[in-house]
Amino acid sequence: MHEMSLAEDMLQIIEDNARSGAYTRVKTVWLEIGQLAGVEEEAMKFCFDAVARHTLAEGARLEIIATEGEGRCPDCHKTVKLAERYDPCPECGGFPVEITGGTEMRVKELEVE
Amino acid sequence: MCTVCGCGEGEATIAEETHLHPHHGHDGPLHARVHSHPHEHAHIQYRAAGNGLHFGLGAAHAHAPGLSQGRMVQIEQDILGKNNAYAAQNRARLAARGIFAINLVSSPGSGKTTLLTRTIEGLHGEIPLAVIEGDQQTSFDAERIRATGATAIQINTGKGCHLDAHMVGHAMERLDLADHSLLLIENVGNLVCPASFDLGEAHKVAILSVTEGEDKPLKYPDMFHAADLMLLNKVDLLPYLDFDVARCLEYARRVNPRIRVILTSATGGEGMAEWLDWLLAGLKNARSGV
Predict the structure, then answer these.
(1) In this structure, are B90 and B113 located in the same domain?
(2) Domain range for B146
(3) pTM of the entire predicted model
(4) Residue B203 has pLDDT above 60, yes or no
(5) Interface of B with A in 164-183 (CB under 8 A)
(6) How far is A55 from chain B (nearest CA, A)?
(7) What is the band of A2 on the pLDDT scale with cuts at 50, 70, 90?
(8) Which of B5, B39, B79 to mutate to probe the A interface, most A CBs <10 Å?
């Protein structure tokens, strides 16, 4: 369900950008999704497919660019990779790691006609 | 006139008692009242239906087949960017008028509406307040709130699983909020999506009932991470349950070390004084522009 509303917002971005007349059909969408954004890639693809029907993005391919979760440890002050938002620092066990990356949900680029 | 519009998607409706809005002298479609934007395309994103509003009756779908060669277009736009912009507008409007708004989030059945009715009763009519109720369907909750004498507006999100800042902005317009008042927003019962959608509130308050299991904060970390306060509700039932309060709080603090916790029983009254104090302190800050 979460992905469904995100897919609708994504379609709206695509439709808003089409208003300038820059394109009438979208073939591919590149979407950047952070690992800590709480979005399931397969669900997102499924939902986008559904909401794009009968629109200028019907049948468009959704390419997901996954970005890694990243944070800064309060103890060792290193920038570390994080698989989950509430994980301790993989280097020293420090907690809580301040999230610095991997929460993105961004429409990057479109291939259009 | 509408100050939030650009109108979003979804199938939400907003319904309230029409007598709350004597300044709107007619029951015509809200679309006609507020959407004077000179867009040439069909921009009907919501309309009045009876005494309510329908969101998202269809975007203008361009549908043009083309065989020309593909090109690349840079977009670089956050999916939540539009919602965040509406939320910022709501927040600015609330701040300008010294209104303290909170967004109550939880699973269905955690006792949010009972907590709200008891909260309103506990304030003894001394604080001007209004309630925005979010549910997929029915206006049962708004009716329960109105039974306390408080002003309430119901947003039905239709297929949507959360309130968004756009819906709340319109609800705020319809509510005729008093300056220096309290705005209580009861989100759709859902521990996932409302975490991502800022409504412009001062705080998210997560309500977790002890009948749900102490591991909820770990199972739904985004929500507990986003909340500033957790009300552990229905604590009057603890003697009958195998619920480890200390473990639950430890889990909540693992995902959010700064989360504040109050143990409440909306029906038994435990913790309600502390919760009301928290609300009043927030209201005081909002009024003084802190």
Answers:
(1) no
(2) 99-288
(3) 0.80
(4) yes
(5) 164
(6) 5
(7) confident
(8) B79
Q: Do A24 and B62 touch (CB under 8 A)?
A: yes
Residue A84, pLDDT score: 86
8 Å CB contact of A5 and B70? no
The answer to whether residue B64 sits within a structural domain is yes
Residue A46 vs residues B59, B161, B164, B165: alpha-carbon distances, Å: 20, 17, 22, 25
Residue A36, classed as helix, strand or coil, is coil
- ipTM of this predicted complex? 0.88
| pLDDT for the residue B69 | 60
Which H helix or E strand runs over B279? Answer: helix B272-288
Q: How far apart are CA B196 and CA B84, in angstroms?
A: 10
Contact A113 B69 (CB under 8 A): yes
For A16, A99, A102, B22, B289, the CA distances from A47, given in Å and listed in that order, are 19, 27, 21, 42, 42
Single out the residue in B68, B97, B126 at which a domain terminates: B97
What was the pLDDT predicted at B52?
A: 33
B79/A24 touch (CB, cutoff 8 Å), yes or no: no
- Are B282 and B189 part of one and the same domain? yes
Question: pLDDT tens-digit profile of A5-56?
Answer: 899 999 999 999 999 888 999 999 999 999 998 888 999 999 999 999 999 9
Calculate how close chain B gets to A21, using CA atoms only, in Å. 11
